[in-house]
Amino acid sequence: MTRVLDKTAPSRPVETPPPARRPRTLRTWYLGGGLHSVLFAIPVVLVFAYFSWGPIIQGVTLSLQKTNLILPAQWVGLSNFEYVLGDPGLAQAVGNTAYFALLALVFGFPIPILLAVLINELRKYDGLYNALAYLPAIVPPVAAILLWKFFYDPSATGMFNTMLSWIGLGPFPWLNSEAMAMPSIVLYATWAGAGSTAIIYIAALRSVSTELYEAAEIDGASIWQRMWNVTVPQLRGVILVMMLLQLIGTFQIFTEPFLFTGGGPNNATQTILLKIYNYAFVYGDFGAATALSVMLAAFLCVLSGVYLWATRRWSTS
């Protein structure tokens, strides 16, 4: 019996196995331009290592020495760390820094998100709103702090106290009060940093599909429902990164308490970086200053690692 082949039936393509990959040898690496790549990369790596890792290594070395950068340095081992940990003012500085970080996180972190959502909803004249939101970031920090220090005049004729007197409040001592000094600094820091952070959120919102918002509007969702169910899930990666950067930045707060209060009143605004400054430039003990700096850097590394581990499931879900 003869088998008739149907020439109209589609023929299955023959799959050819991929060619065997030749093992990479030193000769093939050289002929492929590997040596030229290394020669081009070496200067960049050396410059990066010198300016990035060089100060870190020098700082760790300095933390093991006792020096004022004038007389010859003396190796003291871990004595600087023992001295810093035994300082009775360290606990208050750590507590003040943590208090500032908590206030900035609770009150200062949501404001840029709300500001970005509001500007994104007001699509007309959004360029003007973006410029107004970013305006505080353009003002030099020293000039802005001195201006706000004038606003914080504790007398009844101070600007903030005068405005609050219109609604029957005040006058408040602001920076002269141990209880109000740190919240007053947080208020300024929120004003100064909200605009630049909001611009980042606005840029991220531009990548969110408008169909999601249109579907939410058709379903009758309010602006708060759209923000919670659409905006926050779409921006979760940016929010997590910005929160980590804010945590690191708040633990490095220096300019505001230094210019506003100098650490007062009664060390109520003494922060870790302000204490490092006092160690180095008031007491002339650069070994203790770098020792505290190394401990702060190590703490921030651990904090960043724990934060990334704790948020990895939410960031990928």
Detail the topology: elements first, then pairings.
Layout: H1 26-31, H2 34-63, E1 65-66, E2 74-75, H3 79-85, H4 90-108, H5 110-121, H6 126-138, H7 141-151, H8 159-165, H9 181-205, H10 210-218, H11 223-234, H12 236-250, H13 255-260, H14 272-282, H15 286-316
Helix pairs in contact: 2-15, 3-15, 4-9, 4-12, 5-9, 6-9, 12-15, 14-15
**Residue windows where pLDDT falls under 50 for at least 5 positions:** 1-5
| Approximate helicity band | 55-70%
The CATH homologous superfamily name of one domain equals: MetI-like
**In terms of quaternary structure, what is this?**
single chain
Walkthrough of the structure:
- This protein has helices at residues 26-31, 34-63, 79-85, 90-108, 110-121, 126-138, 141-151, 159-165, 181-205, 210-218, 223-234, 236-250, 255-260, 272-282, 286-316; strands at residues 65-66, 74-75.
- A two-stranded antiparallel sheet has the order 1-2.
- It has 317 residues and is mainly α.
- The N and C termini lie far apart (63 Å).
- Helix 3 crosses helix 15.
- The protein has a domain at 104-235 and 259-266: Orthogonal Bundle (MetI-like fold).
- Strand 1 and strand 2 (74-75) form a beta hairpin.
Can I get a quick summary?
By secondary structure, this protein is mainly α.
Keywords:
single chain; 317 residues; mainly alpha; two-stranded antiparallel ribbon; disordered N terminus
